[in-house]
């Protein structure tokens, strides 16, 4: 009951499952627990909600429901797209990606390299953007697939997927995009962009962990990554995660409904964070171009401090943030994304990501801006180190009475 109030500013790592989503999935854990592939009515009756969830996800990205394959997570979707492309074209063993992808792409490519694939990892500019001429030049007759994320999870930098897609099409190369950070933040229209594969992950859009989506363009030959039963039209074996799929469908619906009002609200909070921090803390910089980023993400470098120390002190104040992605935390190396951008090591090592979401309020931002300058000053040795506080942070901004 006496739970410490947590200010969660790490929504790119995961998001709270929306109460509406919990409500939608519970019946499929309690009453309707049949196997959709069973011949009898008790199993088969979960088929309809499953297909209606598929339609909602298709609507979120503007595709045909038959182009949606449910997977176990974003990592699986990313792996599956690249796996299929390399497995189906034995003569094409070359993959093009970028130096700032998530480890779910980079480490899978590293693995394929051991099996004889060649990987070109494109560099990025200091603002995190990609030089499309370099991309074009990297494409070869034996290139199987290009995988470029739609938006970066660490900096929020958005990549021009429509142009990338056009370049790939003109060279007859498949294009996959990791769009896991995008739903609810930018409109997604796969028909307009024309990519061949797109990955999504439930827990980044207020559905639970353990459910992902891979969009596979109609007519494309596909080699399953998980081989088993005939589920998902033979494209992904394994009994369907019915509750997870229903949850994803509801979350997709909510993302569509709420984006229009959430985006400006989050943008305004983010602007306050950046103006507040950069204006009050000397030797701090924003990582990533100013205007080509997701609305919710702010990655800020503080010279001369260790990000891990900042995060620890923020944690003591009840604030969750991160350095790098959650998947690489723990290594003391500066983030591969910031390194690829050429951020000076003295800033990269002290870089912290704040990522906003539906749960965040004005009070959260006010509180962050209240405690952060003192933390940085203390870590820089500009003011005495206060003993760590285990007290509940004061986050109530009650009216004077
Ligand atoms: C979170 C994330 C992933 C991994 O998704 P999981 O569902 O956790 O496997 C991949 N790419 C990006 C950009 C992400 O943010």
What can you see in these coordinates?
The chain has 401 residues and is of the alpha/beta class. It folds into two domains: 7-12 and 260-382, Aspartate Aminotransferase, domain 1; 19-255, Type I PLP-dependent aspartate aminotransferase-like (Major domain) (Aspartate Aminotransferase, domain 2). The protein contains 15 helices and twelve strands. The strands form three sheets. A seven-stranded mixed sheet has the order 2-8-7-6-5-3-4, with helices on both faces. It has a three-stranded antiparallel sheet with strand order 9-10-12. Strand 3, helix 6 and strand 4 form a beta-alpha-beta unit. Helix 4 packs parallel to helix 11 (242-280) and helix 5 runs parallel beside helix 6 (103-114). The chain binds pyridoxal-5'-phosphate (PLP).
- The CATH topology of the largest domain turns out to be Aspartate Aminotransferase, domain 2
Main sheet: strand order: 2-8-7-6-5-3-4
* Domain module tally: 2
The helix/strand series, from N terminus to C terminus, equals EHHHHEHEHEHEHEHEEHHEEHEHHEH
- Ligands (ions, cofactors included): pyridoxal-5'-phosphate
What is the strand tally?
A: 12
- What low-confidence regions span 5 or more consecutive residues with pLDDT below 50? 392-401
CATH superfamily of the largest domain: Type I PLP-dependent aspartate aminotransferase-like (Major domain)
Globally, the shape reads globular
């Amino acid at each position: 009951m006496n739970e410490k109030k947590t200010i969660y500013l790490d929504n790119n790592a995961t998001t709270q499952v929306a109460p509406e989503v919990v409500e939608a999935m519970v019946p499929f854990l309690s009453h309707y627990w049949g196997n959709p592939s069973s011949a009898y009515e008790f199993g088969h009756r979960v088929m309809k909600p499953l297909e209606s969830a598929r339609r909602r996800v298709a609507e979120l990205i503007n595709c045909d429901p038959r182009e949606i394959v449910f997977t176990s997570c974003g990592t699986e979707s990313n792996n599956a797209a690249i796996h299929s492309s390399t497995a189906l074209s034995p003569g094409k063993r070359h993959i093009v990606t970028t130096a700032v992808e998530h480890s779910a792409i980079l480490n899978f490519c590293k693995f394929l390299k051991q099996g004889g694939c060649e990987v070109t990892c494109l560099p990025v500019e200091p603002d995190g953007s990609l030089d499309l001429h370099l991309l074009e030049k990297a494409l070869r007759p034996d290139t199987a697939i290009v995988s470029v994320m739609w938006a970066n999870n660490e900096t929020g930098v958005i990549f021009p997927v429509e142009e990338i897609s056009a370049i790939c099409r003109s060279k007859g190369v498949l294009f996959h995009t990791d769009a896991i950070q995008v739903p609810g933040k930018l409109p997604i229209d796969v028909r307009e962009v024309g990519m061949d594969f797109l990955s999504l992950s439930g827990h980044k859009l207020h559905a639970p962990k353990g459910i992902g989506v891979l969009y596979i363009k109609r007519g494309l030959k596909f080699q399953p990554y998980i081989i088993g039963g005939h589920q998902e039209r033979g494209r992904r074996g394994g009994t369907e995660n019915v509750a997870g799929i229903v949850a994803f469908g509801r979350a997709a619906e909510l993302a569509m409904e709420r984006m229009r009002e959430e985006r400006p609200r989050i943008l305004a909070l983010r602007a306050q964070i950046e103006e507040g921090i950069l204006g009050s803390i000397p030797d701090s910089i924003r990582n990533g171009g100013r205007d080509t980023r997701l609305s919710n993400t702010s990655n800020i470098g503080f010279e001369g401090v260790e990000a891990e120390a900042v995060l620890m002190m923020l944690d003591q104040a009840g604030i969750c943030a991160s350095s790098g992605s959650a998947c690489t935390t723990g290594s003391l190396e500066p983030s591969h994304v910031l390194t690829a951008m050429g951020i000076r090591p003295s800033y990269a090592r002290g870089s912290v990501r704040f990522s906003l979401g539906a749960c965040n309020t004005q009070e959260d931002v006010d509180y962050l801006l209240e405690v952060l300058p003192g933390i940085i000053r203390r870590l820089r040795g500009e003011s005495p180190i206060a003993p760590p506080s285990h007290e509940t942070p004061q986050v109530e901004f009650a009216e004077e009475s």
